[in-house]
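Below is how a single chain appears once it has passed through the pipeline. First comes the sequence as given, then the structure the pipeline wrote out for it. We keep one example in the README because the format questions we get most often are answered faster by looking than by reading.
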Amino acid sequence: MKKVNLIVNGATRQFVVDNKRVLLDLLREDLHLIGAKQSCDRKGQCGACTVIVNGKAVRSCLTKVIDLEGAEVISVEGLGTPENPHLIQEAFVLSGAVQCGYCTPGMIMAAKGLLDRNPDPDTAEIKKAFARNLCRCTGYVKIIEAVKLAGRFLRGETTPGQVLPDPAAGMIGVSHPRPSAMLKACGLAEFTADIKLQGAVEIAVVRSTEPHAMIRSIDTAAAENMEGVIGIMTDRDIKGTNRLKMIFNDQPVLCEDRVRTLGDPIAAVAAQTRDQALAAAAAVKVEYNPLPVLKTPAEAMAEGAPRIHPEWPNVCYRQPQIKGDAEKALARSSAVVEAQFTTQLNHQSPLEPEACAAFLEGEGEEAQLVVVGRSIDIHRHLGMLQEALGWENIRYEEAFSGGQFGIKVAITSEAIAAAAALHFKRPVRYIPSLSESMRMSPKRHPFAMKVKLGADEQGRLTAYTNDFIVENGAYTIIGVVVIIRALQMLSGSYNIPNINALARLVYTNNAFGGAARGAGPPQVTFALESAMDMLAEKMGIDPLEFRKMNSLKPGQSKSTGRVVVQWPFPELCDAIRTHYERAKKDAASVKKGPIRRGVGLASHAFGISSAGDTARVAVECDPDDGITIYAAIADPGEGNDSMLTQIAAHVMGLPMEKVRLVTRTTELTTAMGPAAASRMTYMGGGAMVNALEQMKAAMEEAGGKSYEALKKAGKPTRYMGMKKNEDEGPLDPQTGQGPSFEAQVHDIQMAEVEVNTDTGEVRVIKMTTAVDAGPVIHPQNLEGQLEGGMDMGVGYALREEYVHGKTRDWVTFKFPSMKTAFDMEVIVRETPRVKGTLGAVGVGEMTMVPTAPAVINAIKDACGVRIYDLPATPEKIKEALAGMK
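Resulting structure:
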């Protein structure tokens, strides 16, 4: 042990620490300064823990306290407060650089370290300084802009007041600061691991080391006698069904007698500290009887293959889609292309690990179980937990969430933490490592697709076939929904009169799939948009013109047979045309040496509000004549807080500060469905507007726009709004025809790339996206979603792949960084949607969907090789180039 004197945020402090204590723990545990975060298992990969030590930005997870005698430490909390923020914090808020907020404190402190030594950095200097600071939300564009704006503030060239939007400018189409942004910028937003529970025990989980086996025995004797251990919980201690049922009842909270994939949960250890729990979990001995491991869908579909789940066949779901006669149309087509495409298993990779806390509020059988987690569908998860645990009185509280990108449609850590709180009758914290979080969470499904696409002599599409197999992994989660969504958006932006598709969902012993940004359409769009370029080339038609001439038109039907009312896609083709022509000229000028430049296009029409979709939002007039919105609408970074606040302020003619949000608890909200599928602006916003219009009508009848007027007239002060999709029912199980989405967001995207033909390496120079999502409520939020989606899509196209049991951190995952960041441009059209919220629809997933095929088409344009299997790694490109010689 050693005594160390430090100055922390201006205060002199004294600590006695051992030689293992790191600065991150001292700040978070001893001083409860929670701004610095941990994501990368203390490997120095993510930068979320960045603070200033003696004037320099350091990663506090690697900094030993014993080496800091006399040091001056500044955390984000010492930089400024919401009432008196630092200029850098103001710059991040005003630039729209704060989305989920998990990386934000580290980014801000890295910015301070840079700007203290260089108050006017260029983009290259910013990228170098932020090389070890990761962000999954923004695509880094807004962060670079924030650092440059902060430099302008510090140099006295402008002020926050001059940049801040004028409230008189209105609420719609104006980028007012997000309501939660400054709290996050000051490091005060509480994420799950930041919440302190008095007397809490820490949980560690014993997980399967076998991909498929019967559990022969679980020996806990040694672990039970270890220091600090409170107890060990197995499936026998769970009083409910022990099943997390979303669609199929196939996923256990804790495995009973069989494990079906690496990392399956078997037992939970509770101890006084996390280190003690982890040590005891490692001491639990599990003996297995191995079973055959089905590694691929082909193995699982083979005749005589054992069932992974006795209750369901390995091909657990199939859905055809038949429109017209595709085979006959292909036979009569002037040109047909045929190919096979595959997409990889991929992780959504939010920076925050899958943390959860749970505790009992009250005593005995009347106690309420409170679960604090990262859910984006708190009411559905509440119901799942009630059934799985056999405990009715539960409340789900959503903490601030460090990104999720679909991952939290599923329950990850909550069921185990909640079961432990019930079993041990103690408050519980379950804070998995990044490695464990990656193993335990659902992934983006791999697809294998066999496609044919045909056109007539004029270049009009005639038919499309897609026989695709979706690897489900060990558990269903929402695999069925992913297939349905893929089929509902199968024809993309185009009029394809004849369709024949067959989708099959197959269990394997691999990692299980779930929701991931786009959830089905990114995979099938990769195949369709690649085939579109192949067919355009075969027919000698320009790829942009080919897309425009084949656009669906109002009155025509999608692959589901659903006739569309609006389809503003051709106008987007016109909007991007000058950019496309410029890019083609630039690419043609690069012809010497190993570097080749190419341009690629891809598009999509992303559906919003599926058949039967319903949303409910309550609004209440408060005694001060403000309003409170009660809505289970999660905001893990997209900007739903802005959307709700600005629309409500606009409709009611109120200042933003008079609009309050209650969105994070099941106790005070009604079921809304998930904050996923880009549906919340359209559905949640629409339900809120419905409630507000009811309130306005009551105020008009009361003769006053106040709480007092409503009360005096005997009118309610609270109103429940609703929005419901007019379509009902599922797709026909034999034809795949039927209802689908009520509205669409449209996009065409252009990738400009350089390919090194010697190494196979690809550098994305620029992505340009032209989008029509209706009237824009908050331009910065829209841009941030588009930029983040492009960055994620490029990672999906070129680098990212999750390998179960091997991918364990951000380096092995090949997480996008400032080094891989590229220029982006956003072109916006604003066609009001007939049933949109003030004409608007959502945009959170759109640009992720066509990014990968745009990049792949650009690679083909650059060097002549087409990659059919994602990701397009240098090795695959080199191999394809070698095959051309």
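The chain has a mean pLDDT of 97.

See the next section for the split statistics.
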